[in-house]
Amino acid sequence: MKKSHFKNGMTVSGLALFVLLASCSSSETKTPEASAQAPDLCIENATVYTGEGTAIRNAVISVTNGTIDALGAAGDTLDCQRYADQGTKIINLEGSFVYPGFVDAHSHFLGIGLRELTLNLEGTASIKMLKERLGEVVKSAPVGSTIYGRGWIETHWPENRFPTRQDLDEVAPDHPVILNRADGHASVVNTKALEMSGITKDTKPPFGGDILLGKDATPTGMLIDMAQSLVSGLLTEPSLERKQAAYIKAGEVYAAYGWTGTQSMSGEPENIKLLEQLSDEGKVGLRVYNAVDITNAGPLLDAIASDGPQSNANGHIVSRGVKLYVDGALGSRGAALLAPYSDDPENSGLLLTEKSTILPILERALRDGIQVSTHAIGDRANRLALDWYEESFANVPVSERKVAEPRWRIEHSQILDVTDIKRFAELGVIASMQPSHAIGDLYFAPDRLGSERLQGGYAWRSLIDSGAIIAGGSDAPVERGDPRIEFYAAVARKSVDGFSNSDWNPEQRVTREEALKMFTVWAAYAAFEEDSAGTITVGKNADFTVFDKDIMTIPEAEILTLKTVMTIVDGIVVYKNPD
Fold it and tell me: Is residue 178 within 8 Å of residue 234, measured between CB atoms?
């Protein structure tokens, strides 16, 4: 693989000095001279939010070889029409609004595509509907074949409980069934799947997992976190053709949403070459920054240690990091807490790793220049992640590190003890957070945690005020992966129907300027890409998200009604709204 070079970039404090998107008139914007030769692309008749403190009305953007070479208000020296007969592609945006390319800082890219190609249980409103959807699949499934689906979440269901094996048995007694919860941290399976996997009331759950038992002391069918591995033998690895189709579909779906790139978490290292090939062939148009699952990652991590970040020929697919896990998810009560769950006093969650296992990995990563992204949701998990990061920083001084400021991340950072909030900025740790988690979880989080612990829950405002950087993502396919929902959740901190209450801590919402940073300049910083991405600046990549309305000024509720007009990556239109 080709080596990509990145500068270590500005410090956290330096980045915090940026004041973005204070709207000003075009007369206040410096207008570079247009390039002497005809550009490849010229965009006109748009309002451009540069991400550098300016909003340029009636703007022109000139692009050559995928790089912005001129930007400013339309005038004598910046006029797309002067290139009308010189082979330049001219795009008249007819008053639309252009932003630096939105980047989803936490997704599971292959999973996004697979969601579209399998039994998608997203939006399932009850156990009754779950059974109906499963029943439809059973009608055409080959006898004895495993039925797999993903996307259900029970928090709004009228039954007010997890589904059980008996629920699934009613419609699928003869097929093994595995239905993965939306967060990926729990599955419900039917009796056939339990029997074929040898799971009984006497089965001991693996470390980091749990087998839920009913009042009769037999498995309910709910497998939490690592216990899901007990039924993995019933699933076949997706074929090469299916993975290819999934990557292509994921790219299409995300481009249509307006994302120009994503930072993909926990990917399988062996799939990277396929993704690189699809990107080089133009079949996946987005940028993808990989933090791979540590399983089977040895050769890739050795390559990063030897040659630096790895990338494909066009530079769109970059692999630099590794993804680790400390705990499970809040909804399935697998998030590791400092005190027991309020609605399950005998349970404090699950730890998925131990200090003796993770510390050598962290210290090697510092010496080899490998970025670390660690999943932590509960307050205990986040404290441990911070503690282990801090200890590894002390054990490997800057002089022994390949990257002095490693920009390690904690993925989710959902529930924090308030005393730990300041530690993110103090340690230079990036909080990689997904705003939609808050507006979904806050329906049930008060029951799980109580109001007091929620003071440190989804604490965007407190983290930013402490000097921390938040990289904004979606965690798709756990969530929908729609930038409109993520932006809205960050600035409104309300459900998509406009609901919130005091337990939702509305004071933790962010400004629109901060929300834009989360998905542009801070996402770029979190991937060591601030020199080439994150703002619309001469010399940077021509990555643009184009909406039909002004996300910075329209009423909150209207954010959810925005339409993606166009998505542009490296000056190439990867999505154009057919309307």
Answer: yes
Q: Quick: pLDDT tens for 288-301.
A: 999 999 999 999 99
Phi-psi region at 282: left, alpha or beta (left = phi > 0; alpha = psi -120 to 50) = left
* Neighbour-count burial for 136-146, b at 16+ CB within 10 Å, e otherwise: ebeeebeeeeb
- Quick: pLDDT tens for 232-283: 999 988 999 999 999 999 999 999 999 999 999 999 999 999 999 999 999 9
At 36 the pLDDT is 61
Using an 8 Å Cβ cutoff, are 438 and 472 in contact? Answer: no
The candidate with the shortest Cα–Cα distance to 317, out of 306, 309, 328, is 309
| pLDDT surpassing 60 at residue 424 | yes
DSSP 194-226: HHHHT--TTPPPPTTEEEEE-TTSSEEEEEEEG
Judge contact between 364 and 376, C-beta under 8 A: no
CA proximity to 549, closest of 98, 103, 101, 102: 98
Write out the two tokens for 246.
Answer: 């999934």
Sole residue written with tokens 């993606």:
564
**Model confidence band, residue 10 (pLDDT cutoffs 50, 70, 90):** very low
- Neighbour tally for 317: CB within 10 Å: 27
DSSP 8-state secondary structure symbol assigned to residue 88: -
The segment(s) of the chain belonging to CATH 2.30.40.10 are 9-101+534-579
Q: In the chain, which segments carry CATH 3.10.310.70?
A: 122-234
- Given pLDDT bands bounded at 50, 70 and 90, which one contains residue 144? confident
Q: Are 41 and 89 in contact (CB under 8 A)?
A: yes
Beta-sheet strand order (sheet of 147-152):
119-120, 147-152, 177-181, 186-189, 219-225, 209-213
Q: What is the dihedral of CA 383, 385, 389, 394, to 10 degrees?
A: 50
Phi, psi of 231 (to 5 degrees): -110, 5
CA triple 310-313-316, angle to 5 deg: 70
Q: What is the CATH number of domain 9-101+534-579?
A: 2.30.40.10
Nearest alpha carbon to residue 436 among 403, 477, 379, 464: 477
Residues 362-421: tens digit of each pLDDT: 999 999 999 999 999 999 999 999 999 999 999 999 999 999 999 999 999 999 999 999
In words, the CATH class of domain 122-234 is alpha beta
pLDDT above 90: percentage of residues in the chain: 88
Query: What are the DSSP E strand ranges found in 438-558?
Result: 470-472, 544-547
Residues 227, 211: contact at Cβ < 8 Å? yes
Which pTM was predicted? 0.87
Token pair for 453: 């612990």
pLDDT exceeds cutoff 70 at 12: no
* Strand-pair category, 102-107 with 259-267: parallel
Rg (CA), the chain: 24
Q: What's the average model confidence in pLDDT over 71-90?
A: 94
178 vs 173: CA distance, rounded Å: 13
CB 340 within 8 A of CB 346: yes
